[in-house]
Amino acid sequence: MIPESAKEVVDELREQVAALHGELVRYGLVVWTAGNVSARVPGHDLFVIKPSGVSYDDLTADAIVVCDLDGELVDGELSPSSDTAAHAYVYRHMPEVGGVVHTHSTYASAWSARAEPIPCALTAMADEFGGPIPLGPFARIGDDSIGRGIVETLAGHRSRAVLMQNHGVFSIGPDAKAAVKAAVMCEDVARSTHIARQLGPLVPIPPDDVDALFDRYQNVYGQTGARR
Amino acid sequence: MIPESAKEVVDELREQVAALHGELVRYGLVVWTAGNVSARVPGHDLFVIKPSGVSYDDLTADAIVVCDLDGELVDGELSPSSDTAAHAYVYRHMPEVGGVVHTHSTYASAWSARAEPIPCALTAMADEFGGPIPLGPFARIGDDSIGRGIVETLAGHRSRAVLMQNHGVFSIGPDAKAAVKAAVMCEDVARSTHIARQLGPLVPIPPDDVDALFDRYQNVYGQTGARR
Amino acid sequence: MIPESAKEVVDELREQVAALHGELVRYGLVVWTAGNVSARVPGHDLFVIKPSGVSYDDLTADAIVVCDLDGELVDGELSPSSDTAAHAYVYRHMPEVGGVVHTHSTYASAWSARAEPIPCALTAMADEFGGPIPLGPFARIGDDSIGRGIVETLAGHRSRAVLMQNHGVFSIGPDAKAAVKAAVMCEDVARSTHIARQLGPLVPIPPDDVDALFDRYQNVYGQTGARR
Amino acid sequence: MIPESAKEVVDELREQVAALHGELVRYGLVVWTAGNVSARVPGHDLFVIKPSGVSYDDLTADAIVVCDLDGELVDGELSPSSDTAAHAYVYRHMPEVGGVVHTHSTYASAWSARAEPIPCALTAMADEFGGPIPLGPFARIGDDSIGRGIVETLAGHRSRAVLMQNHGVFSIGPDAKAAVKAAVMCEDVARSTHIARQLGPLVPIPPDDVDALFDRYQNVYGQTGARR
């Protein structure tokens, strides 16, 4: 059951997360029912997430389900996403994370199918990810392997996205919108970097320039200085 | 003539199949009038299918035609798809199939023009297809060659899609929606796998992991445990 | 001046040609104001064509101009397309042609920038083009060089499209819609064939199969047996 | 403060620049909030530009801000784009420039990540850019390095676009619409030329043909002979 004190924020997050799935569609990161967004309920051991196998056209706020941090269904009429255990693991082990996104976006998945991290040759990538986007292990769905792979790869890393080998992308952020932005930017730089390397070697960005770009973007970009 | 007892279900299938062609357009699997979806009429030796050479904009439920399992027109004012014989052959020889889709989708057709099956290096492909997507023979339109090629390749295979050499894709499913999903997923993994291999060798997924992923997806994914 | 007897058909063709430009946009064959469609006025030495440098959003039937077969403006308030001379040359020398389309569509232009015809490794290409799509010469705009290059390449060829070296595509048909279809199919097979060849050699379709496919498609496909 | 005499034109430019950002979205040149358009206020040391980190969906005319030629905010409630210093530098040093556009469009960025100019093998590129699209230096955001790199590369060059190494594209024009057109055409030829070179060497266009094409397009194309 959702505690009385959480009901209003849960309603808002259901609306927000339903709408954010539309961004995955808009940017072409998902096909059919693949891909999912979740958001932690601040101050509660709960998160909201997409139900399993539901079409994006049918994804109203009402369809979004609520789970506890063990991934068990707390509220909602549908079964939670089959990736719920991975989201739950991230929320349990990374208290700073408020949103998680999973996609099989084309170019990022392609890097993952060769088990290669994405090298940093574009300033937009230095800005958002602070360097290469790392590769996580191959992990089978069904237990905590995927969640553990995500957390072990991203802990202490600047990158907000990880390529899970032979699988796709998980991205994180302080809230669900930031995690969606990371998913969008990850595919964008995965694509540009792939295309660049098709015709010859990349020119890498020197590490101190990467550091300076990352630092500036995290602190100066946007309307408030806050990361968005 | 459509038997009285089939009329209601035929009307429903015409609506459904007309709408499902919209998914081929949405996912960019077809251009101009190429591509077609059909659905078996359960309990009758009939199926509904797209008429030949009709634009997707004009594809109302009324335009969808009804054929018998020899591919002969039973109801409708337009000539059936030029691929009708292939659909009919599949329905005659694969009683478990309730829907068939044919497209020339770009990446799948590209694998077929090199006469290569698509290797399995992505979990989404293990989930949906249970391994590689196989290659069928080159077959000329006009007799049962295409239908026979589809059935011989898919019989006893886990994959719901076959690349017909130098041609395109046929996909099957328990109903038309599942066959459309297979067509969409086939192009998606054909694209990601192509892009992955452009920059180096793929890392294959070990066979027992493929088996486990396929098994789980067929039984656990979605809202009912039923494959969708 | 438009002869009285031609006014009604000119009005219809203006509507039709304005609408057909929308197909170039829908299939991604054009950016900004590049690309143009024209249609012969049957029984008159006239054709209608896009005005020069006008945005597709602003392309109403009223904006379409009428030219004679020397490419001189006969009716309309705007200057005709800068490719008008090439269209006019085709109409003067190929009486069977009722529509002409020009685009810089991406994949077709890419083949043209390497001065390579597109080989025939897909049945859809055999159907529509009856074999490879040929390469025309490099020709500078400003005189009859482009028109001559188109006519010399397509005369006696089955293909309804020609890649003009370092430039783009011209396609023809018995009417403007058929020429637009050829432009759409040309880009589609240019893309699939390009992607196929990225990862290895193509498997060619044997010539007698190409002949049989072309013959069948021209005579059997669609609702009337007429080519569409 | 905006001088009284500039208020009307500033209002018009805000409308125009807000709308022109929609063209960046339409042609797929930008994702999320990346990319920006600015326009000089004729006769005043001012320009209008996109605010920093604002979504394209929220980009009304009211959101567009006004800066002086040092890049300082003169009017508007939001912080100006983080690329404002580069735009300002261009306006200070290139008096003929009335519009500036910046994007990370995919194919152009890919050439920049290999530090390669785009060679001229397509007539559309000769028309618009008069030859290759040049490469500017790697430059860190935060001072005048980017602006200086743009101006030093484009001064005395025919091209209206420059690839900034490891970064993206800046394009210029007599007004903002022309600069947006240059950004659109830059990505279009970056893509076609990339794809052409994937399968073999390009056939270059002879220099005197490039000169003739550029000259003709600048003087004859469109409705007025004026460049558009």
UniProtKB/TrEMBL annotation, chains A, B, C, D:
Cofactor(s) demanded: Zn(2+)
Top enzyme class: isomerase
Entry-linked InterPro entries: Aldolase_class_II_sugar_metab (IPR050197), Aldolase_II/adducin_N (IPR001303), Aldolase_II/adducin_N_sf (IPR036409)
Any Pfam family the entry gives: Aldolase_II
Keywords: Metal-binding, Zinc
EC nos: 5.1.3.4
Residues annotated as transmembrane: none
Start and end residues of each Class II aldolase/adducin N-terminal domain: 15-194
Enzymatic reactions: L-ribulose 5-phosphate = D-xylulose 5-phosphate
Family: Belongs to the aldolase class II family. AraD/FucA subfamily.
NCBIfam families: PRK06557.1 (NF005123)
Record's protein name: L-ribulose-5-phosphate 4-epimerase
Species: Pseudonocardia xinjiangensis
Biological classification of the source: Bacteria, Bacillati, Actinomycetota, Actinomycetes, Pseudonocardiales
